[in-house]
């Protein structure tokens, strides 16, 4: 009888387990959950055991300090510490580091056998990433902040050859809209490193707070870092500081803090790119130094929304450039980053148009308009930044009026700016708000905390490709990489920041590290299970939105039925539901195909994994009413931009969510709504409900009042009543409000509904006096 070599290895392996005193285990591919997925991985038989006897054999101090970072984790979680030896080459149970110049920058190879590990890399970063891979091969308990007993610290025997797809793997944290303490910044740097990200873009300046100590301009932080505490109010409804009011909310980093963070990041092979916004998003700087503006001020640090951003640095005044050069001079001493980010986004040129100095500059420099004036501004700053040996990077608005000669563009308004800049031969970092905005919702809006808007769930982030499909080889070569941005208007502190960042950061890391052909959503979803356990040990407040059940309802006009579809973002989950209001359990009915409903029900659904409920129970109430499926005539039609499901929308029994773009809302822009419902026969009434939405930040306001009329012939109408609304139109986040009319003992064949809109944004709102929206989802007749 012939024995296959693999069987022989297996037998020998089993024998070795029996006869050795070392713990051992045979791993399967499903046990391996490295994020981001390595470029190449081959699993072998056997495993390597970490113990107090394990030795790291390294070549130099820098490698030693990389090894030490993992040893510290063992010390905490396992109560032993492998040794680290420089220059030794002997021993069993060793992890040997060897420099190999043939390996790609940041790449590494990792070979694990039963009694040794060999790591090769050309750069320290490569060794560091190999250690992150080992960390993720170890039991998730390695992340524990206290001792965990009865764990075999084994990793599978395997070989990995790995290198990043992109050299810019970035994450941006906004610390201006809400200040994040230094301790949190150190934490994020750790998490970025765990996922082999290498760039931390620190958004240190924006209208609502200057966060970086500048020795030459102390008022930037004495004044500019503090605002009146209006945290209890909606971001778009926060009043300006009144005379005598104390500015108590905020904070900043001292230069010592910055040095500490930069060093911490360097030890984790992360470059910190500081962003010093100009010429806009700088109200805080003008509050401190009003002479840098066109008007001279006075200004205050805004506690919330500023739009449009008209208070910007004066481009005609030499003092502005002197100030910015002084600031940048201090910035370059603090941050070794090759890139300095100058912002450049969303500058409204209203003041530049009126300003004598700006207009004189336009004439003197023979510029065509204010866009070219911004381009002049950026080009001048680029010269200065280059003179310090650094490169300028800015948001894609820096393309307007002509790009500075060496500038790198960070493309946020989709891919367009990046594609254009690359075509002009400039380097770009792709950070399109279609995929990379972590301030967007990641689950059904009704179930999520208030966010900026948008929808960028885990799968969308995972699908992000920094190279746009329209790019050819030459333009693609200019794409340095990709980045996600966490803007923090709606993120009040670290715990919430974690919620918005995780697990989307894991998806992002794979989008910027893993070869495109190795990306696999289903496989990633499986690896997430172990990542989430890691997050639990690290005490990360991650989002479980990808486990939520989404409900989509559609009215079937032919069969006069409501069809309900249930889905989850992650694959391989079971959805179970009930129609009687009871909590779904592992024994509830499993969802397999759309549910047809002809009566009012309360659907409760949740996802299940391995027989256990994961994620919240989602409740969906469906009310079939007397107008369901009836004809609606629009005397004042809705704006076609928000058309919902068309003329059935208001009577399809499908209610809208807090997401005004979910396809269930109709919008009227600067106009009232007037519609007539045809109930086909004289119908006894109980009450009439009209659903409306308010989202002040998106310029959507509830109607002022709604009037109801009844008719038997569709010609002469009699007033049934009116429902008013009294809440302050600019407070609160998203409000869904039902206007309910008591119509008891009344009868009607036709019902006319007129919703009187606000038409214009109210006083104190960012859009004061401009047209606004009114959104209606359903007219329910009972
Ligand atoms: C646009 S992205 C901005 C930020 C906001 C963000 C909200 C960019 C360069 N500017 O100031 O925080 O939208 O999503």
Structure explained in plain terms:
- This protein has 782 residues and is of the alpha/beta class.
- Helices cover 24% and strands 30% of the residues.
- The protein has 17 helices and 36 strands.
- It has an 8-stranded parallel beta barrel, surrounded by 6 helices. Strands 29, 30, 31, 32, 33, 34, 35 and 36 form an 8-stranded antiparallel beta sheet that branches.
- A hairpin with a 4-residue loop joins strand 22 (549-556) and strand 23 (561-568).
- Helix 2 (61-78) packs parallel to helix 3 (124-137), helix 4 runs parallel beside helix 6 and helix 8 (318-334) runs parallel beside helix 11.
- It is globular, with a radius of gyration of 30 Å.
- The termini are far apart.
- Residues 14-19 have low confidence and may be disordered.
- Ligand TNX binds next to loops.
Structural class: alpha/beta
- Helix share, percent: 10-25%
Spatial order of the strands forming the largest sheet: 8-9-14-15-16-17-18-21
Percentage of residues in DSSP E strands: 25-35%
Strand count: 36
Mean pLDDT, nearest integer? 94
What's a quick, concise take on this entry?
The protein contains 17 helices and 36 strands.
Describe how the helices and strands are arranged:
Blueprint lengths: L4 H15 L20 E10 L5 E4 L2 H18 L4 E4 L7 E6 L8 E5 L3 E6 L2 H14 L16 E9 L5 E7 L7 H13 L4 E5 L1 E2 L2 E2 L8 H4 L3 E2 L21 E2 L4 H12 L4 E8 L4 H6 L29 H17 L4 E5 L6 H5 L1 H9 L5 H18 L3 E5 L12 E4 L4 H8 L4 E3 L9 E2 L11 E3 L2 H5 L10 H4 L2 E8 L7 H8 L2 H10 L7 H18 L10 E8 L4 E8 L5 E5 L10 E2 L4 E3 L3 E9 L2 E11 L8 E6 L2 E5 L22 E4 L3 E23 L9 E7 L6 E7 L9 E23 L16 E9 L1
Parallel strand pairs: 2-3, 2-4, 4-6, 8-9, 8-21, 9-14, 14-15, 15-16, 16-17, 17-18, 18-21, 19-20
Antiparallel strand pairs: 1-7, 5-6, 5-7, 10-11, 12-13, 22-23, 23-26, 24-25, 24-27, 27-28, 29-32, 30-31, 31-36, 32-35, 32-36, 33-34, 33-35
Helix pairs in contact: 2-3, 4-6, 8-11
Bound molecules: ligand TNX.
